[in-house]
Design brief:
Layout lengths: L20 E5 L10 E7 L4 E7 L6 E3 L2 E4 L8 E8 L9 E4 L1
Antiparallel strand pairs: 1-2, 2-5, 3-4, 3-6, 6-7
């Protein structure tokens, strides 16, 4: 049993600040490669990442080192956002078009 004694106080912090996401590794803007490798970073740790490629309707889970394979010829745009342990999502996802 874990009870506080009379007069004891407990303090805690509520995290309401969203993380900031950066793309720190990316393919060249002009390439004929059908594979694109990325690396992501955030100002918070630990975080998870969510990606949205080429106008997908929703973000899906991705890793800090993410590779996209079998890409069609043409332009591609990636959005990525970090999500911290409190569930705060970067409101301004990092973006890259190649």
């Amino acid at each position: 049993m874990n009870a506080l004694s009379a007069g004891a106080t407990s303090t805690f912090t509520i995290d309401t600040q969203p993380p900031d996401t950066q793309i720190v590794g990316k393919p060249a803007q002009t390439t004929q490669d059908h594979t694109a490798a990325f690396r992501f970073s955030s100002n918070e740790s630990p975080v998870t990442y969510e990606c949205k490629l080429d106008g997908a309707t929703t973000f899906t889970a991705c890793s800090a080192t993410q590779t996209f394979n079998n890409l069609a010829d043409g332009s591609h745009t990636l959005l990525v956002r970090a999500v911290d342990r409190a569930g705060n999502k970067d409101p301004t996802p990092a973006s890259y078009t190649w």
